[in-house]
Design brief:
Length: about 150
């Protein structure tokens, strides 16, 4: 099983731009991330119910979650818009292909690596991206020892 995970990781790194592949650790746990040029179809069903059935609140919750995901996706694309690096083109393609918030979460490391630097514009893009990630993944920070009064 370990050799198949290593071969999958090697094939994924082979499809990445070389500068991104070089920034990844040599050995990652199986399933640590999934970045590939081919998009695997995802088929989610809601059980015996059809996709339009359910309570109106359920539908509104799904629409709100979708809206938040699309906002995060647009934040990623806006952050990568002015980057002329060849890796940025590959990352923009991966962001456009993302189907779930977790796909964008897995891309955060390579995106922050491309946006590294001390220029004010890149700093602004990193802040914008952090705020977008915090809006979707609010529990991503470690718990504080301070309690509200």
């Amino acid at each position: 099983m370990r050799s198949s995970a290593t071969s999958v990781q090697a094939s994924m790194q082979a499809s990445m731009p070389t500068s991104l592949a070089a920034s990844l650790p040599a050995s990652l746990p199986a399933g640590a991330f999934q970045l590939a040029n081919s998009i695997a179809p995802r088929h989610y069903t809601t059980g015996a119910q059809g996709p339009g059935s359910g309570l109106p609140g359920d539908r509104m919750a799904r629409m709100a979650a979708r809206r938040v995901f699309v906002d995060l996706k647009q934040t990623y694309l806006l952050a990568l818009a002015d980057v002329a690096d060849s890796d940025a083109g590959w990352l923009r393609n991966q962001v456009r292909s993302a189907e779930e918030p977790v796909d964008l979460w897995l891309l955060r490391g390579p995106v922050f690596a491309v946006l590294s630097g001390a220029e004010p514009e890149r700093r602004r893009c990193r802040q914008m991206l952090r705020r977008g990630l915090d809006s979707v993944f609010a529990d991503s920070e470690p718990p504080s020892s301070f309690a509200p009064l």
